[in-house]
Amino acid sequence: MNPHRPYELKEYDPEWKKRFFDAAEKVRAILGDNLIEIEHIGSTSIEGMVAKPQVDILAVVKDLNAVKDCYAAFIAAGYTPRGRGYTKKDDEYFTEDSSDGRRLISVHTLQENNPRIEEHKVFRDYLRVNDEDRKLYILTKRKLYSSYRDNYAEYYKGKAGVIDAIQARAMEWRDKSRKVS
User: Fold this and answer.
1) What is the CATH number for 36?
2) 8 lies in a domain?
3) CA–CA separation, 18 vs 44, rounded Å?
4) CA distances from 114 to 40, 58, 62, 84, 97 (A)
């Protein structure tokens, strides 16, 4: 699922926001009226986060099945359709990669009301405000990168437990925030 491909970790770069906005405009134009919402997610959306310089985009659509009709437009815009189920069984996934295989942009397209939409946003929002877990995630990424800089699959797999633990705390944080408001 996550074969080795070249990758690197970088300190936070404000340029990632601009790359998101530029890419989001292309995705908006491609998905048109099917698009409900578009969000910058993943580590590049969190100020201060160490990240692969890969901008992750969450595109929420009315009809996920209709996204296949947009493959030609995505290809024309420089994206590779990875198909449904490349990352999870309930998404359409598109990537823009450099000539040496480094991932530049990932577009995660999900059907409205999919619970993963909120999970992505809550994880991002929680790490934006929780210094302790942001530092834990940064430390985890750095350790894994130092051990697996030439093995992306192991780097990715190594993050899973920490991501799951942070995601659980993020959902608790969300639930507590809802009770207060």
Assistant:
1) 3.30.460.10
2) no
3) 11
4) 17, 12, 11, 14, 27
Cα–Cα dist 133/128, whole Å: 10
Residues spanned by the domain of 46? 15-180
The b-or-e profile of 100-125 (16+ CB within 10 A means b, else e) is eeebbbbbbbbbeebeebeebbbbbb
Residue type, 93: Y
Spacing of C-alpha 55 from chain mean position: 7
Contact between 31 and 67 (Cβ < 8 Å): yes
Question: Token digits for 34?
Answer: 């099917």
| Overall pTM > 0.85 | yes
Pairing of strands 35-41, 91-97: unpaired
pLDDT, tens digit, 9 for 90 and up, residues 62-112: 999 999 999 999 999 999 999 887 776 789 999 999 998 899 999 999 999
Q: What is the pLDDT of residues 7-49, one digit of tens each?
A: 999 999 999 999 999 999 999 999 999 999 999 999 999 999 9
Question: How much is the mean pLDDT over the chain?
Answer: 94
